[in-house]
TrEMBL record:
This is Uncharacterized protein. It comes from the Bacteria. Keywords: Membrane, Transmembrane, Transmembrane helix. The chain crosses the membrane at residues 19-40. The lineage of its organism: Bacteria, Pseudomonadati, Pseudomonadota, Gammaproteobacteria, Enterobacterales.
Length: 45
């Protein structure tokens, strides 16, 4: 919602903005998967 508003203001920044959003999502996803892996690892012991 905020990202869409920023994109409307600066169309030329849309590419870099989506890049950072994608990078953030990938980073959060990786951390989330690592957390699940550690949680499962603890349960098995």
């Amino acid at each position: 919602m905020i990202a869409a508003g920023l994109a409307d203001i600066h169309d030329e920044n849309l590419a870099s903005l989506t890049f950072w959003v994608d990078a953030l999502l990938i980073f959060v996803g990786a951390v989330f998967l690592l957390g699940i892996a550690k949680f499962i690892g603890r349960k098995k012991k």
